[in-house]
């Protein structure tokens, strides 16, 4: 009788293990390219950072799933193995505490959090390492509710080209072709870009979803992003910080083009740069205010002299 029970249990265990293994295979191998990059937008090659950001994302999910499967299996096993059986009476054996198990429950999660933190820190440090010699610096000003782009590009022949574009608010009226009227950020393929991110008024956030990076734009502060676009094409950009009534219309286009086309586009833009002189709150920008001869003591809209 006992031998029969043992054999049955072993078979059941083998079936369970097989089913779990098959599920894991299907989930982990990923049925499609989308699944393999964790349904993130873009591809591994869109910028020089996409591959490592995708790997961090996908591997974190695999680790979470593995921990989840272990925890769920342990829970279900407890429920089944220690269920109340027919003819059971009273309470099961009551235990107050178990120091080794409770130590494990404390130490394991701490280890897991630090492991996750370690991998995140490594990728973050690599992605955010400043690059001082980018041939292209793009100063981006966020403003309610559009974008200013100022390009400073040192061409391979050493000549520096400066050009800018000042956006006006998009009018999303549902008509076709509105996207073409949005401000367009041009970037050359395979050229490292240094973005200087600023705000003219309130907190905004610079986000090109397919580039997998997003960064705050705060009044009175400059934030930085360093990346190299590696694939030509059109991408969507948007503000990712609720910044007022028309936040949802604070959109832009991104065109990654070859170097020659990029230089040609710069020639079509307004020459020179636009700086902080157009910031709405001159208190955050005393230099710009001085250039524009704004009196810092007088509130804007008020006072007369
Ligand atoms: Cu905004």
From TrEMBL:
Enzyme Commission (EC) number: 7.1.1.9
Query: What GO terms describe the biological role, i.e. biological process, of this protein?
Result: ATP synthesis coupled electron transport
Q: Which domain of life is it from?
A: Bacteria
For this UniProt record, the keywords arranged alphabetically read as follows:
Copper, Electron transport, Membrane, Metal-binding, Respiratory chain, Translocase, Transmembrane, Transmembrane helix, Transport
Q: Where in the cell is it found?
A: Membrane
The chain positions of domain Cytochrome oxidase subunit II copper A binding read 133-268
Write out the function statement from the record: Subunits I and II form the functional core of the enzyme complex. Electrons originating in cytochrome c are transferred via heme a and Cu(A) to the binuclear center formed by heme a3 and Cu(B).
| Record family assignment | Belongs to the cytochrome c oxidase subunit 2 family.
This chain belongs to the protein called cytochrome-c oxidase
Q: What is the lineage of its organism?
A: Bacteria, Bacillati, Actinomycetota, Actinomycetes, Micrococcales
């Amino acid at each position: 009788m006992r031998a029969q029970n043992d054999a049955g249990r072993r078979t059941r265990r083998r079936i369970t293990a097989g089913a779990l293994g098959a599920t894991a295979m299907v989930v982990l191998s990923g049925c499609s390219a989308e699944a393999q990059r964790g349904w993130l937008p873009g591809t591994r090659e869109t910028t020089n950072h996409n591959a490592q950001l995708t790997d961090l994302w996908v591997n974190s999910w695999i680790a979470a799933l593995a921990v989840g499967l272990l925890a769920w299996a342990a829970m279900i096993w407890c429920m089944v193995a220690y269920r109340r059986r027919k003819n059971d009476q009273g309470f099961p054996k009551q235990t107050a505490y178990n120091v080794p198990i409770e130590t494990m429950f404390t130490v394991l999660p701490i280890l897991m959090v630090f492991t996750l933190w370690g991998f995140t820190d490594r990728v973050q440090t690599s992605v955010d390492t400043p690059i001082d010699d980018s041939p292209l610096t793009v100063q981006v000003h966020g403003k309610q509710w559009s974008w200013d782009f100022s390009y400073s590009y040192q061409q391979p022949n050493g000549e520096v080209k400066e050009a800018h574009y000042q956006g006006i608010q998009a009018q999303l009226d549902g008509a076709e072709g509105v996207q073409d009227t949005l401000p367009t950020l041009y970037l050359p393929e395979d050229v490292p870009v240094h973005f200087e991110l600023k705000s003219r008024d309130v907190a905004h956030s610079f986000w090109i979803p397919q580039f997998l990076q997003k960064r705050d734009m705060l009044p009175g502060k400059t934030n930085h992003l360093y990346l190299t676009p590696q694939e030509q094409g059109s991408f969507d950009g948007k503000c990712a910080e609720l910044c007022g009534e028309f936040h949802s219309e604070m959109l832009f286009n991104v065109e990654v083009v070859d170097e020659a086309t990029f230089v040609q586009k710069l020639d079509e833009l307004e020459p020179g740069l636009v700086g902080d002189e157009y910031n709405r709150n001159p208190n955050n920008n005393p230099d710009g205010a001085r250039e524009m001869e704004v009196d810092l003591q007088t509130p804007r809209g008020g006072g007369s002299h």
